[in-house]
């Protein structure tokens, strides 16, 4: 089927530059690893304990998972029609009726900033949990923000080196990561189910908690939905890897859907295990890392440390997959001349057939976002908060444009007559969740508790707009075609 893949790419106007080494499982693995239920739930669980408590953690997970499935299905249909590394920005340019360059430009930059923020946030979280493990192992150790930044920088360096010199190994690691997540989840769940002498009663699932500082319980519950939304980001990774995927028109959308479905089911089991293992709600919600404190209280320090290693491993796998996906987006965006120094960033290593320079740009940009954490955790949070909002808005643009296009031509994987209704539900959910991400999350609102996501998003959009009108609109018209199918076929590097 390699010929069909190449013919599809040539029809979109691109020569083949990347090696197709990803099969169906590999494509699924990249998104499953980036969604990363262990990393997402352990990072956001404490927030959910105060914004709705068990009722929202459990039933919010179920509800939001269903909404994310609509987003994934709508994205999958588009991915089947346009299986290219450009993914969201490419399809936005192709689906727009007018102003294709502008739609493509904004989508690409939202996607780029969101992905860089994802890489930075994941590795910063990993560094934080590594510090927590060291403190558990050696109580006299006192972590500092500077040490967290140093550890996160070291992680970035290793991930960049892996994407540069051991590309085949990265593909293998992504396969391993799936089993690490699934087996790790089972180990954590079994430990929390079997070892504690007692659990919360079944009715605890309906327990509601509001410690956000806002009096309105409904508002707190809506904020609690963000726990699941924070976790379900990055499944566009399958889309970005489509030029390296065999039978991409089918395996890419299947990869997106499988990643969401398996994450939803496995995540629900993990969420239930953590909720029912809660011992002292007040003490655990007030801990520096509430889910870690739950493990310690329920299982003892020794077992908790072992399980924390599983969590840290999951976060490291997530960061690596994030960087790989980020790199492909940079490669494709540069191929169409949308980034400064585009000629550099879309060049491909003759040895590995991967965009090595784009790897180091992804690492450098993530480092720029991590560095403010050196002097202010709030500053870091402000910058990477645009991660989720940027990604979901980038998801929403091509789905919205597909809704407007009456003569959309679907690929082999499609939703038939349900395509438009599914896309409409996806757009409504993306708008709603994006608004939630930008609302105040804690009261009273102070400099440290303020939600900087709208400011960060505004800065990104302002820069993109000034750049667009000053220069880009004259040279960037959206995805470019390198010639007819026969002409680009002659340019294939492999």
TrEMBL record:
InterPro entries recorded: AA/rel_permease1 (IPR002293), Amino_acid_permease_CS (IPR004840)
Coiled coil: none
GO cellular component terms attached to this protein's record: membrane
Pfam families in the record: AA_permease_2
GO biological process: amino acid transport
GO function terms (MF aspect): transmembrane transporter activity
Key word Transmembrane present: yes
Record's subcellular location: Membrane
Top-rank taxon, per record: Bacteria
Protein name (record): Putative amino acid permease YhdG
Organism the protein comes from: Streptomyces hundungensis
Gene: yhdG_2
């Amino acid at each position: 089927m390699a010929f069909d893949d190449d013919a599809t790419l040539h029809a979109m106007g691109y020569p083949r530059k990347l090696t197709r080494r990803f099969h169906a499982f590999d494509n699924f693995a990249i998104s499953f690893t980036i969604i990363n239920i262990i990393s997402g739930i352990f990072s956001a669980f404490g927030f959910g304990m105060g914004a709705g408590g068990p009722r929202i953690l459990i039933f919010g997970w179920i509800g939001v998972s269903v909404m994310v499935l609509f987003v994934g299905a709508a994205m999958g249909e588009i991915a089947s029609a346009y299986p290219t590394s450009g993914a969201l920005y490419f399809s936005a340019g192709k689906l727009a009726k007018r102003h294709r360059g502008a739609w493509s430009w904004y989508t690409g930059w939202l996607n780029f900033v969101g992905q860089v923020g994802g890489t930075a946030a994941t590795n910063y979280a990993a560094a934080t949990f590594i510090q927590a493990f060291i403190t558990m192992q050696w109580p006299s150790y006192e972590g500092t923000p500077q040490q967290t930044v140093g550890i996160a920088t070291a992680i970035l360096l290793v991930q960049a080196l892996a994407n540069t010199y051991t590309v085949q190994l990265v593909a293998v690691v992504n396969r391993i990561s799936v089993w690490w997540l699934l087996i790790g989840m089972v180990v954590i769940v079994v430990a929390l189910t079997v070892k504690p002498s007692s659990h919360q009663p079944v009715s605890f699932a309906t327990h509601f908690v509001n410690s956000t500082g806002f009096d309105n319980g409904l508002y707190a519950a809506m904020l609690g939905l963000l726990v699941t939304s924070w976790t379900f980001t990055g499944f566009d990774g399958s889309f970005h890897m489509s030029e390296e995927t065999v039978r991409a028109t089918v395996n890419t959308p299947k990869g997106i859907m499988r990643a969401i479905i398996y994450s939803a089911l496995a995540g629900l089991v993990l969420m239930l295990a953590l909720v029912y293992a809660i011992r002292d709600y007040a003490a655990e919600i007030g801990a520096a890392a509430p889910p870690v404190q739950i493990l310690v209280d329920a299982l003892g320090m020794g077992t908790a440390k072992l399980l924390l290693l599983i969590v840290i491993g999951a976060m490291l796998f997530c960061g690596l997959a994030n960087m790989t996906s980020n790199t492909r987006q940079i490669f494709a965006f540069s191929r169409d001349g949308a980034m400064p120094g585009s000629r550099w960033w879309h060049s491909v290593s003759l040895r590995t057939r991967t965009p090595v320079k784009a790897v180091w740009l992804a690492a450098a940009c993530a480092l720029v976002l991590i560095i403010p954490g050196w002097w202010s955790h709030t500053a870091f949070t402000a910058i990477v908060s645009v991660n989720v909002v940027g990604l979901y808005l980038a998801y929403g643009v091509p789905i919205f444009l597909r809704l407007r296009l009456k003569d959309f031509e679907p690929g082999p994987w499609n939703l038939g007559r349900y395509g438009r209704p599914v896309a409409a539900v996806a757009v409504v959910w993306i708008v709603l969740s994006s608004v939630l991400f930008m609302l105040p999350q804690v009261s009273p609102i102070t400099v440290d508790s303020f939600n900087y996501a709208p400011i960060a998003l505004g800065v990104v959009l302002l820069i993109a707009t000034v750049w667009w009108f000053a220069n880009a609109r004259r040279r960037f018209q959206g995805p470019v075609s390198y010639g007819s199918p026969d002409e680009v076929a002659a340019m294939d590097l492999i």
